[in-house]
Amino acid sequence: MSDRLIRELFVKYFHNAYLSQMTDSALVPVNSGKLAFTTDSYVVDPIFFPGGDIGKLAVCGTVNDLSVSGAQPLYLSAGFILEEGLPLEDLEMIVRSMSEEAQKAGVQIVTGDTKIVNKGKADKVFINTAGVGVLPEKRLHVSEGRHIQPGDQVIINGSIGEHGIAVMGAREKLNIKNSVESDCASLNHLIQEIFEKNEGVRFIRDLTRGGLASVLVEIVESRTFGIRFNETTVPVREEVKSFCEMLGFDPLYLANEGKIVIIVSAGQADQILKEMQRHAFGINSSIIGEVVNEYQGKVVMETEIGGTRLIDKITGEQLPRIC
Amino acid sequence: MSDRLIRELFVKYFHNAYLSQMTDSALVPVNSGKLAFTTDSYVVDPIFFPGGDIGKLAVCGTVNDLSVSGAQPLYLSAGFILEEGLPLEDLEMIVRSMSEEAQKAGVQIVTGDTKIVNKGKADKVFINTAGVGVLPEKRLHVSEGRHIQPGDQVIINGSIGEHGIAVMGAREKLNIKNSVESDCASLNHLIQEIFEKNEGVRFIRDLTRGGLASVLVEIVESRTFGIRFNETTVPVREEVKSFCEMLGFDPLYLANEGKIVIIVSAGQADQILKEMQRHAFGINSSIIGEVVNEYQGKVVMETEIGGTRLIDKITGEQLPRIC
Prior knowledge:
Two copies of one chain form a homodimer.
Chain A: H1 3-14, E1 26-30, E2 33-42, E3 48-49, E4 52-53, H2 54-68, E5 72-83, H3 88-105, E6 108-117, E7 125-135, E8 153-156, H4 162-172, H5 188-197, E9 201-206, H6 211-220, E10 226-230, H7 238-247, E11 260-264, H8 269-277, E12 286-292, E13 299-302, E14 308-311
Parallel strand pairs in A: 5-6, 10-13
Antiparallel strand pairs in A: 2-7, 3-4, 5-7, 8-11, 8-12, 9-11, 10-12, 13-14
Helix pairs in contact in A: 1-3, 2-3
């Protein structure tokens, strides 16, 4: 892989007015206000998996991080660390995925960097994407969930655990019947729509590493309310359930890359749910629980068989290199 | 290394109002205008070297990339990829370096991410920093050097090649007499001062990978002028010279991390030079050459012995993992 070939690849797929300045810093316009700025490194193993690859993931993940803060994602950076010997075709597939996903999301990859390390000093390819977006003042409360209050409803935009299972399945080369695909998707359009149409959105968070359980626990931590949700209302696909039973995973803790929880005022919950269900990435949305005065700082699940279970933060190791 | 320990380390050293929101996206204020946005991954080997470490480098490099575009650097992101088994003390030294260098530069590290990969799947630590800054409209021409014209003077802020030699020396465990230290430094204060006091600044570029030669060649490429400079006016320390003679390197192509070339109007050159020489990172500044009508698209060096030499782009491999 020569520097020149790699550069040509990036120009081919990432072409836009800002990137093509080809200077070290991209110069992009923004309006006055709050800027949202985020970064994530992607080290997923394997780099290709059902439903996506490391490139798609690197765009979706950062777009979603910006979106859940209330911001409109605008610009991404892309930093590649390549292991010597990575086939150029693989890199091209990844770069093409990034380009396609950026187009879908309506963001521009405006600056980038590539480093190459010797064989054995990295694992094929690692990608860092940082992202910049703008945030309307009136959404400033959203990222910390300052307006969450008892009575608020908890909505999820679809079934959980698919990204985790898709990656683990590909890594371990398990023969999963009806192979599960990653739910990897850029949710910014869905999220923008909800924000624009509704004043009652209190909080949005993407369910990545640590899954639904970890996010719910984080929401209530050191707050004066709890969350109660119902096991039967959380959508989990049959294939994901069987895989989890087989290997001892709990879908509540599995990673997702196209799933969010939204906490909304009780009065607007039904309307927001309907709007979400009309969107491609929200068809299977459902209300799974509510914010309650009881269980202060805790998350409690009503189980299928009628009991209750206290939901803990993930204990022990998280699945490594899932994103 | 547990997730908790690592998180505590970052909170300890990177504490600031924006980072401590601890949400996925940092929300930071900016004024309307052009935003400069850049990214770089750092994979330097070894991670500690005379004059710096990978953390200091990751801050300086990105601060400098923003600064040379004309922007005032404001916010950095930091994405870490850690190899399992990296001693926590090493990580702490690196994080502390980043914190200290960010303070010196007056920038804030506002968002971050850490991924851990198995032993043998990375090399100790890789760091990506992306950076955001704001750019006054009147400096928009600088990053592409649109106002460069024949007669302009070429200034360098000090001696070249020290970063490259410091890293290579540390990597190969060479016994370099009077061990050379990396010139790694955040040049934003120097650069801001020059911009603020002078209208005649046409172009600034940092001399990183590829060194002085590569930057000069890039400047003239597909332009209607050339650059002529004098070998004897380019500052090179004796230790760097001997090391280069010994190993067959050319200092013109060696990496620097605290060096810039500035192209300025002939009328302001002396004044800018004097201002630079008063600054800690510009004491050894000198005028090394000028932009000329001859040699269109080419860089020519007048050698010590009175001849001229055409300066090429770097041929063959660049030194790997120098930054």
